[in-house]
Amino acid sequence: MTAGGCFCGKVRIQLNGQPLKAGLCHCLDCRKLTGSIYSFGFVIKTADLEVLGSPKALVKTSDSGNERHNYFCPDCGTPLFGQGMKADGTPEETTVLRAGILEDSQVLTEWKPQAELYTDRRLEWVPPIEGAAQCSAMIPL
Ligand SMILES: [Zn+2]
Ligand SMILES: [Zn+2]
Prior knowledge:
Layout: E1 2-5, E2 12-15, E3 21-25, H1 28-34, E4 39-45, E5 49-52, E6 56-61, E7 67-72, E8 79-85, E9 91-98, H2 105-110, E10 115-117, E11 133-134
Parallel strand pairs: 3-10, 10-11
Antiparallel strand pairs: 1-2, 2-5, 3-4, 4-9, 6-7, 7-8, 8-9
């Protein structure tokens, strides 16, 4: 179990399990979403995520027509997690957690990125993570 939350503290999350995968994403959406130059995300089981508080969802429809809900704190704006939605309106089995909201540095250290996505967008001065698969686009997570 590991805990995290937003900058103002009104939304808290708990991860009741281990991440399935860890990755960096250099895509332009992730830049805007996080205000940083890449995102660090953990793919987790949706069932392992417990949310305390009322995050707000920004709904975006992907090129494939599927809806993605990106949740953030309505008060301080911290990005928290993103979920693809199934046709029946329920979240998919996996969720992408913005890893930086977790407070346990040990978890962040242990779960080094296994893959980097959209590496063609990576800024020149950012070196690749040693041992991480380099993918020029999205891979199925
Ligand atoms: Zn907040
Ligand atoms: Zn991305």
